[in-house]
Amino acid sequence: MRSVPCHWSRGGAKASTRPGQCKTSSKHRRALVSAAGTSGAGANLSVNLMKQCSILERTEVQLQSGRTSRHPFRVATFNVLADGLAQSGDFVKVPISCLMWEHRLPLILQEIKAADADIICLQELNHFDTLATTLVPEGYSCFFRAKKPSPALKFGFPADGIALFYRHSRFSCSPAPAGHCFDSVDGQPAAQGFVTAQLHDKLAGHTLIVAATHLKAKAGFENEQTRVHQACQLLQELQNMHDRYQQLQLLQQPPVSTGTGLLQQAAVLVCGD
Question: Cβ atoms within 10 A of the Cβ of 235, count?
Answer without folding.
Answer: 13
